[in-house]
Amino acid sequence: MWTLAVAVTLGAVIGCQSGEQHEPTLRIWAMGKEAEFLISRIHGIVLDGRRVEVQRIPWSAAHEKLLTAFVAGTLPDVIQMGSTWIPEFAAVGALHCTEVDEEVVQDIFPGAVAANLVDHRWCGTPWYVDTRVLFYRRDLLSRAGFSLPPRTWDDWRQAMRQIKQLGPQHYGLLLPLDDWHLLVALAFQAGADLLRDRDQYGNFQSPEFRRAFSFYVSLFHDGLAPFEGPGQVANVYQDFAAGLFTFYVTGPWNLGEFRRRLPAALQSEWATAVLPTPEVDSPSVSVMGGASLAITAASDKRAAARRLLQRLLSPDELVHLYHATGDLPARRSVWHRFSEHDPLRLAAFREQLEQARSTPKIPEWERIAGLLTRYTELVVRRQLAVDAALARLDEETDRVLAKRRWLLQRTPTRP
Amino acid sequence: MRRLILRHLPQLQPCVRCLRRLVLHGILFVGGAVVLAPLIWMCVASVMPEGEASQLPPRWWPSRPTVEHYAVLFSSLHLGRNFLNSLFLAAAATVLSLCFNSLAGYALAKLPFVGRDRVFAFLLALLVVPGQVGMLPLFLLLRSFGWVDTYWGVLVPSLASVFGIFLVHQYAQSIPDALLDAARVDGASELRVFWSVALPLCRPILVTLGVFTFLGTWNDFLWPLIVLSDSSKQTLPVALASLAAEHVQDTELMMASAVLTMLPAVLLFLVAQRAYVAGILSGALKF
Amino acid sequence: MHRTRTVAACVFLAPALAAIGAFFVGPVLAGLVLSLTDFDIYTIADSSNLRWVGLEQYQTLLRDPLFWQALQNTVTFVVVGGSLTILTALGAALAVWRAARTVQAFFRTVYFLPVVTTIVAAAVVWRAWYHPRVGLLNVALRWIGLPAIDWLGDPRWAMLAIVAFSVWKNFGFHMVIFLAALQSIPQRLYEAAAIDGATGWQQFRCVTLPMLRPALSFVVLITVIGSFQLFAEPYVMTQGGPANATLSLVLLMYRNGFQWWNVGYGAAVAWVLFALLVIATLTLRRLRARPGQ
What we know:
- In chain A, 46% of the residues lie in helices and 15% in strands.
- Chain A is α+β, with helices and mostly antiparallel strands.
- Chain A has a 7-stranded mixed sheet with strand order 2-3-1-4-14-7-15, sandwiched between helices. In chain A, strands 9-12-8-13 form a 4-stranded mixed sheet. Chain A has a two-stranded antiparallel ribbon with strand order 5-6.
- Chains in contact: A-B, A-C, B-C.
């Protein structure tokens, strides 16, 4: 009896290892809604004699999952990858990088091109782009005495002060504490470089960054943004509909959610605008986000993988993607085919995307972004003063970049 | 008044005692309700229609019981696959650990050899070392074997456990040497003595160890989270954790998956309660 | 005869010792070596990027405010969570012990049930109860007229929320041990105490408590060892937030090691955790060895 159980177990363990993965498959990993889209469009189709197999990984743990899979050597052939992660995975040799195709590059938003170019080589193809713009309630804004969305930081602050006067259950802005995007966008607008000396040191004590940081923190300290931790946002859509806040800085994925989840009476009352800027004439810069499709260095099915990319990046598929998920295609030539769907709101995104910049293209960026979130939260919660926080931010960033400095010293030609 | 009470004290005493008992049992019942409340609410919420579990004022009964969330778990979220993974891994870990630990525990208890006490003391000292200390190097080791993202990789740390060896050792010590010697005189090999004489006598502790290992593997989180990246290989708790991160708003769906995750463990415990508790106690009282 | 048994012992022990050696002791020691290097994601890409850095990781660790915060959180969890768990367990054991025979087994099972629930699943349930607006805890607070608390979103409350969850989850385990110890106390000790005129409290202090000492010291030991390994609760409920108020040492190790692949640093965190546990265990053992009053 026991012998049998042991034999069966061992047999099963060994059998399970060897029985799989012999079918010629082309594996692709994707996140969230895009994974669902891919499952419905391409899961199971056959390309170059390979059956396409889509696997879904959750956004919340995507970065660590991909990195772990790289370490373990279990990355699939194609990955959907946040475009800010491309430099990191390229630097460690996880991606298959190719020569730049000028024709493709012309068509894609400049910020997205920059994010995918590593060492002048093309390490991922931008699939869809996103950036954060200002979502606002037109009715509340006009009740506060403004007919147009704010153009400058001062206008914005003024508008939020007026909105707070409308009543105790009205705040200016919803700003989750665990999101660094608006802070970095404001820093870009103020002309700050986050790092210096070929991205070897933190540069957070620069006057430009300090200006953006102080403005950002003051939104909380002046009571314009309700104080919220990650668990606190009960339901963004209900709160926005109830007028708890008038402004919300968020991305294109919320266009569809707002259309679907806000009550019908509000549908004509919400709009989008580009982010306010420090000066009237300074350009409104935001952070380039979105995702690319990348072929892994370990893949031995590159021809099939390229075919898959071609297909997914074709205009028809991109329009499908927009209608299924609300994702904005990275190729500008496709935009006229869907922009009439929501022309005014998409226009703000189009304008913002043309000006969007990518975050520093170094493997350590995700860690530095974590530091940024942490010190911002400490200042917002008044546990640390601005100057002390920025000094410590620089100090810790320098420590994170120590290995990078050593590597650059050893091989000065590397980025 | 005081005198009155004093005079009647002998008669009153049983009443005081009975009142005390009443209060004690009342406290026990309230405590039990508090302990069970999250679990009961979980079960009830899992059959509520969407949105009802986060309604105000809260409901303790669904307006219309439904199993739609369970259906979603098995159909579009493919949790059935994860369920089978967990089941398989827990069963495999149980069998493997029974083999490894019973052999070692028996040898340490009943077979004399030089340095036995030192080996045993060393193993006991290992009980203090948290498993996490070796996790990073272990992962790198498995990577070089190509075992990351395989079931083997998950099972490897549970092949042999110090606690398991300890359990079997404590129990096997009570086997009379005369029984073993009798078998040896009859010409049985050492393996035969172990298999046919010692093992049947150790049955109770093996059941305990089996239940322990099964539950421990079923409920384990950190190691399978690290080792398994392919979602079709993941265990139920790992799949649940990633669902919980994505479906924060869908309380009912989360509760259904929590029920699914807990149910086998709770059922096994209810069935094998005696063996499980015995295991804890033999660990606790002899340590 | 003796030789064959020695050979058999070696053969029987070999698989288990090999497994423990290769997959536990070996990696633990390798972790010490790794913590003296700057092994990271660059090293995985190209092994020539590995440097021997001596104790630098540990120095960095001591300067890292996040490490101190994780240490403080973990110690808070061990001390506050541990003592609350033990006290609850002791109270529950005394109550069940005094209860009628017929219901003893029932309550033991009920109180033990949370122990066998899957921690991730239970954390998901509790997270729903902790919801600031619709969570049942805040509904109850509002009902008795107290202000609602943002359990998992407020740095002042988040660790307490995790402590409460872990008390619920773990006290049954210790209760069973206490209960067995209580049941093994000979009844005649109480009879003798009663003859000497000892009150209930005196009986508890002079009979029950001394007889519980061995069980108590065991429970303290496993509570300390278990609590230092806090991970799944914050991972599922708060991801270490808000403002890192629930970041534990193991979570810090996980983030550095398995999220950023900053392996050298992660290994250093793991070894500090190990050292702390050894110190705690030795201290406890010394306390236990001291003759009771």
